[in-house]
Amino acid sequence: MNAFEDPLVYAILLVPMASAALLALLPDDRATGRLNALASFVTFLAASSLFFVRPEPGSFLIVDDVNVVFIVLNTFVAFTTSVFSASYIAHELETGRLTPAYLRFYHAMYQTLMFAMNLALLANNMGLMWVAIELATLTTVLMVGLYRTPAALEAAWKYFILGSVGIALALFGTILVYLSARAVVGEGLDAMAWNVLVKNAPAFDPHLLSLAFVFLLLGYGTKVGLVPLHAWLPDAHAEGPTPISAVLSGLLLNVALFAVLRFKMVMSANAATLAPGPLMVGMGLASVLFAAFMLHRQYDIKRMFAYSSIEHMGIITFAFGMGGPLANFAGLLHMTYHSLTKSAIFFSVGHIAQIKGTQRMASIRGLTVSHPVLGWGLVLGVMSIVGLPPMGIFMSEFLVITSSFARQPALAVALGVGLLIALGALLLRLNGLAFGDPEGGDAPSHASYVPMYAHLGLVLAAGVFLPPAMVAWFRYVAGLLG
Amino acid sequence: MSHLSLDVAHLFAGSLVLVSFMLLYQDRMFGLLNIFALHAFVVSLSVAWQAYIQFAPHLYITAAIALMVKAIIIPVALHNIIVRLGIHRTIDTVGSIGTTMLAGIMLVALSIMVMLPITAEAGTLTREDLAFSLSVILLGLLMMISRRNAVSQVIGFMSIENGLILAATAAKGMPLVVEISVAFSILVALIVIGIFLFRIRERFDTMDVHALQRFRGGHP
């Protein structure tokens, strides 16, 4: 295989890495937030260029039709989150929850996380992808524990242990896939490269692949937050800084799911293996139902939306597990909309928690009266996440259910029930949060509402009118996923 | 490959499973640390032997890392942490030792029954090492769930990691093994630093992970 030569792809990796080093050294705490946003923007521009140039796959990096969607979404949300983060962090500094030294650490880790996620998406080598996902886990663990409260440390420790066991299992699966490929492709880097694996998969030993997939699904599934491997997720979301909750929900879960999808593509290419679909459908459905019931007993606003993320990752895994062009199409759409909507919700939740000085929902009331812009943003976000029309999520959830109705009516009904239970829980809570007489603290906040409304606007626009070019593109990628 | 080199590889991999069992029945903190150092020592011997019989010099690096980091630095660091933080010297177990050992035996039988039939074409060395490494991984998981304190959970995790290194070296010609072992060492180092920096004892007054549950959200 040839060396990989494309400066733009290197820019996607090098810009975050260089800015991580720079942000770790810069002492000025006012400029760093802006620099962080600037670096994320440059990375996003470099990623967007991948729509137009398509470099040849190299031994370590690859740009193909599947990962372009993920990487553009990843860098876009990373950019908007960095804009939100700048205003969020300014407030944390003023209230003294964070010191300038922690701030430098936070920004350096933010860019390192971007580097790790982009590397995981661009890797053409399953070992390299594993290392990248491990690095992403480590950086998020450090950021979840940033506030150093007992609860934050507990969340970080739990995430650390569960995440480490998860990636350990994933590594064993990776070794087994290499073994099955080695017999056909021969020793060396080729036996770990995605493009070679998918091409040669029909000749692989099906038993080894089947066993490997079980380990991979359990391993990377832990990172996706699928039930029953989800225990770390609500704590990590609730206790870390809110920009990290947004990045975790909107991006890192997708990256882990992307790893599962890559392996599923190898599995699907080999007819004799265990079918990966039913396993994914089962775990996805379990996640939806479990999270839907858990949503009813949440008291902390960030934990509640963390459970909502488990629910939505369940829907996406369900869709990809169903497979076929239509369900995959729905899964891709839902993944995109969920990333945009959930990060928008966390943007608003971050400012709400700062204004009210608490995350307890019982102490937050009447947001649309006291803070109309923020309150209505939350209302819009929750309307979108529960899947009410005309937002995009309505369309993608509708597609997931209709595409599975034709093949597995019972499962589709179960999924629909889960969605309705979740809708009930979220709307009930929203009623208390957004309406009625204002209650709770009223600290000033330098909120930047642009990222939140930009995301919600995109989801709304996509729900009303999805450009034919995008439909064609998603349909093409859905076909590739098998 | 000669019979002797196969036999030696087999001996090292088998000893690793045996040491995993020894980890399971330790009830003293320092004893556990010593046995873990032995575990890491055996894995580094095994990797070095694989490097020799596969003519793969880069694996010597992996062996050296295992020896330096996991057989020497980490046990010493954990020893100091236990002394300085005044952690309890005895280990709380969930079930009785006997039940845990029986479960361990069943896990080893399971991994042999799973791995041997499906790796029939992979060559003797690979299939035996894979069966052993899966046993080590499962025993490590068993240890993590049957122990209550954070230090022994960390040691359980590190023994899982040793099993993975064994599997990665047994998969002959696998690229990036050295990089993966470095990445793992960083992970482990951070976990150990985590124990110290997070000062779990100081903050929570106990290393019992169960006590951490009280900070769970969900209660008004």
How would you portray this structure in words?
The complex is a heterodimer of chains A (482) and B (220). Chain A is built from 19 helices and no strands. By secondary structure, chain A is mainly alpha-helical. Chain A has a domain at 276-482. In chain A, helix 4 packs antiparallel against helix 5 (126-144) and helix 7 packs parallel to helix 10. The longest helix of chain B is centred in the first third of the chain and has 28 residues, at 58-85. Chain B has one domain (3-214). The relative contact order of chain B is 0.15. Chain B is built from 8 helices and no strands. At the A-B interface, helix 5, helix 6, helix 8 and helix 9 of A face helix 4, helix 5, helix 6, helix 7 and helix 8 of B.
Q: What's the quick description here?
A:
The complex is a heterodimer of chains A (482) and B (220). By secondary structure, chain A is an all-alpha fold.
Helix and strand arrangement:
The complex is a heterodimer of chains A (482) and B (220).
Chain A: H1 7-25, H2 31-48, H3 65-95, H4 100-122, H5 126-144, H6 150-185, H7 194-200, H8 206-224, H9 232-239, H10 242-269, H11 276-295, H12 301-322, H13 324-356, H14 367-370, H15 372-385, H16 392-405, H17 409-434, H18 450-464, H19 468-481
Helix pairs in contact in A: 1-2, 1-4, 2-3, 2-4, 3-4, 3-10, 3-13, 4-5, 4-10, 5-6, 5-10, 6-8, 6-9, 7-10, 8-10, 9-10, 9-12, 10-12, 10-13, 11-12, 11-17, 12-13, 12-17, 13-15, 13-16, 13-18, 13-19, 15-17, 15-18, 16-17, 16-18
Chain B: H1 3-24, H2 29-53, H3 58-85, H4 97-118, H5 124-146, H6 150-170, H7 177-198, H8 200-204
Helix pairs in contact in B: 1-2, 1-5, 1-6, 2-3, 2-6, 3-6, 3-7, 4-5, 5-6, 6-7
